[in-house]
Write the structure tokens for this entry.
Amino acid sequence: MCCPDALAAAARLPSTPERMDRASLERDVNEYIERTVTRADELAPARAALVAADDARTAGNASFRSGDFATALETYEKGERALRTDALREPVTMAAAERALLALLANSAQCALKLGEHARAANLATAALGIHVCASEPALFKKVMVRLALARDTSGDADAAVATCEEAQLR
């Protein structure tokens, strides 16, 4: 059985050369509803991954503020895994997942710096810079570049740190 709202919506569709009878219209509307519901079911894991990543970011931020950088880093990585498992594979959620992943990687890089894991911080910052949306998020881009420069500087590569800062200023 078809819902009355869907029938009303279908009735507003441009008419075809041949007038459809009620049974054909109802069949077409039911097929459309089935496709839409099925697609929503397919998107559920990706949307759940976005929620899980946001929850991980929030919990990680709380751990970071309390000075528990190891727990914060672990929590951010949990959010990253959730995104990579489902949300980044689905075109509908990919843009939101990339933004969330960018924030998680930037935060992870900061945690690694606080823990004295400079090579790991550099790898995390470099991974963040490789995300497509990083270029379109100027504030996050500069934040990640500063973290990369700090990681390079504390690793003893002052020249690379200066070059990274110069590149950040250019954008």
